[in-house]
Amino acid sequence: MIKTWRLFIISTLCLAGTAASMHLTNIHINHIKTGVPSSCSFNESFDCDAVNTSRWSEVEGIPVAHLGMLTYLFGLMITLAATFDEKKRVKAHALLFLLSSWCVIFSIYMAYIALVVIKSICVWCLSLYVINIL
Question: What string of DSSP letters covers 34-88?
Fold first, then answer.
């Protein structure tokens, strides 16, 4: 069973992930619309725009960052439900385990794409990788 303090930490991570994903979605949309570089594009090695507007940054026209935001919000809903209803904690534990496992696997995949294929790191994406691992 998940203890309340752990649910608080998970909720905080979900909120941080939601905020970072919203920011990444905003960067993605603004760069595509205007072509103006984002504030986190420093050089070839650290270029959020190269990563965040690559062909891997969308699924069927939807920014991956936006899908990430929805995933973090789903995790937040699960933790809030478990916080206020002890009966839901066992199911919440299983759901959060599956959700976090998926997020870590997807982060590894996206990190591989960024580092090996695109050869550039997005600082905001890196923050999401850390959130997912935590």
Answer: H-PPPTTB-SSSBBHHHHHTSGGGEETTEEHHHHHHHHHHHHHHHHHHHHH-GGG
52-93 pLDDT per residue, tens: 888 998 999 999 999 999 999 999 999 999 988 888 888 999
The residue ranges of every structural domain in the chain are 4-133
Confidence of residue 1 (pLDDT cuts 50, 70, 90): low
Query: Rounded to whole angstroms, how far apart are CA atoms 98 and 47?
Result: 31
Identify the residue with better confidence: 33 or 17.
17
Query: Quick one: fold of 4-133?
Result: de novo design (two linked rop proteins) (1.20.1440)
DSSP state of 1: -
Residue 127 pLDDT: 95
C-beta separation of 87 from 59 below 8 A: no
Sign of dihedral through CA atoms 56, 20, 112, 35? positive
Contact 81, 88 (CB under 8 A): yes
Tell me whether residue 38 is exposed, middle or buried, using C-beta atoms within 10 angstroms of its C-beta: 0 to 12, 13 to 18, 19 or more: buried
